[in-house]
UniProtKB/TrEMBL annotation:
It is found in: Golgi apparatus membrane. GO terms for molecular function: glycosyltransferase activity. The chain crosses the membrane at residues 20-40. One of its GO terms (cellular component) is Golgi membrane. Keywords: Glycosyltransferase, Golgi apparatus, Membrane, Signal-anchor, Transferase, Transmembrane, Transmembrane helix. The keyword Membrane applies. Pfam families: Exostosin_GT47 (PF03016). This is Exostosin GT47 domain-containing protein.
Amino acid sequence: MAKKTSKRRKPTGQLSGEPLLAVFVTALVFVSAFCFFLFVRSIDNGNLPTIQQVNSRSPMKATTFSAVSNFSNAGGQAAVPSARIAVVESGPYHDWKIFAADFRDMMRQLKIFVYPDLYRKVGSFAEIFLAHPNPFNPKIGNYVSEHLFKLALLRSSLITTNPEEAHFFFLPFSVNHLRNDRRVHSEDAIADFVANYVVKISQEFTFWNASAGADHFFVCCHSVGREASSKHPHLHNNAIQVTCSSSYFQRFYIAHKDIGLPQVWPRRDEHPLNPPQARDKLAYFAGRIQNSRVRQELLDLWGNDTDIEVFDKSPLRYEEGFRRSKYCIHAKGYEVNTARLSDAMHYGCIPVIVSNYYDLPFANVLDWTKFSILINQADISLLKKKLLSIPTEAYLAMYHDLCRVRRHFKWHIPPKGYDSFHMTAYQLWLRRGIHRLSH
Ligand SMILES: *[C@@H]1O[C@H](CO)[C@@H](O)[C@H](O)[C@H]1NC(C)=O
Ligand SMILES: *[C@@H]1O[C@H](CO)[C@@H](O)[C@H](O)[C@H]1NC(C)=O
Ligand SMILES: *[C@@H]1O[C@H](CO)[C@@H](O)[C@H](O)[C@H]1NC(C)=O
């Protein structure tokens, strides 16, 4: 364009005679016609100018053109730097800004109603519904998240006593208590108890029938909790199960409807993190091998390794391995989940997740690939090669991101900030908006 314009202007400035102008105009028309002819011919032959040809003739046009037509070309290149900045800002989050804004809305608006059994101290089964008096009792161990959720909810600003303003209704039975109650105990009896309870509240209150249970939820950390809903189709199909054993591969777990709950070990103390340079072992796993092919394979492959430490019965104190290793292996046992994942986070050790079809907690907010390694169970023999191939820089970036997400795997009573309780509540918030029948 610039060339053509200067050509046209130059002659008009220097040659003012009419005949010369006429000759020039004629020439211009002729040249234009010839170019048009070439253009049409190239279309006829299907030889449209390539992006590179257009690019070499007119950089401005090419950029616009290729940006629209092919993202990996010039236009794409222009987009890369800003994409990189976004990644750095979001870090371990898919989109921190969107999440943080929506989270603020949730904190202002979300309301949860709890059925009164949580407060009633009457009846021989009252304990099943009450908050646990001592969740840090060592006997609770792995299942403490279930109790901490309830205790945090009771102290949170999200609870309401007005069911009309509630987005969700909490069914406060404890699967952990049911499991420990001799009168109930078996999976079958737990499922009967739970089904009867749902029938009871659907008769006493109008809320269940208004949505067929779709705005109701229950929380459990014991894997038998999954079976708890098995004898009540609406409870199973519609209500939300908030569970530690969230596996795409298990019956009675429904991905996208149900919610993965972080499983944590009851731990009050907080120690300073061992920095990356003080971690001289590559990887660590300690845990019962029984019932787990994956763990057996780990032991067979790396049982005598000096970089990767795998123990059935650890000679170290359990925490020591987490403190001195860069990577900590979370290998499927009987279930996809164990508290080992949040143990690794607690001690600043990058989790290596060898647990297929685990619906990882908060995966719609957190980009797990930024602070953990996900390995197919079938690729376990490549584990060491894979870990050794991670450059130091990438490891340090993961360590940094892990430090940022640790707060989501901690419970506080009362709940605070972006802790496990509020993150779980946010998962409910994303599932709100259920249509209700009037009553
Ligand atoms: C985009 O450009 C790249 C690189 O030139 C090429 O490999 C790819 O096939 C193009 N894709 C499309 C959809 O044109
Ligand atoms: C809810 O529906 C069930 C089954 O249809 C019925 O037995 C129950 O009485 C209803 N609850 C109320 C509060 O109307
Ligand atoms: C580890 O070494 C011991 C002693 O040499 C041996 O008996 C055992 O089979 C080895 N285990 C593995 C998994 O290689």
